[in-house]
Amino acid sequence: MFAARLQSYGDRTALVLEDGQSLTYAQLAQRADDVFAGPVVPPRALVAIECENAVASVAAYLGALRNGYPALLVDAQLDEQLRRRLYDHFHVSYVHDAGGNWVSLGRSAPEVHPDVAVLLSTSGSTGSPKLVRLTAGNLDANAGSIAKYLELGEGERPITSLPMHYSYGLSVLNSHLSVGATILLTGQPLTARKFWDMFREHGATSLAGVPTVYAMLKQLRFERMELPSLRTMTQAGGRLAPDLVRWFGELAQSRGQRFFVMYGQTEATARMSYVPVHKLQDKAGSIGVAIPGGKLELVGEDGKVIHAPGETGELRYSGPNVMMGYASGVEDLAMPDVHGGVLLTGDLAKRDEDGFFHVVGRIKRFIKVFGNRIGLDEVEAQLRENGYDVAVTGRDDLLVIAVRGGTEETKDQLTAHASARYRLHRSAIRVYPIEDFPLSTSGKVQYAALLATLCPGTP
Question: Which of 5, 66, 348, 420 has the fewest beta carbons under 10 Å from its own?
Answer without folding.
Answer: 420
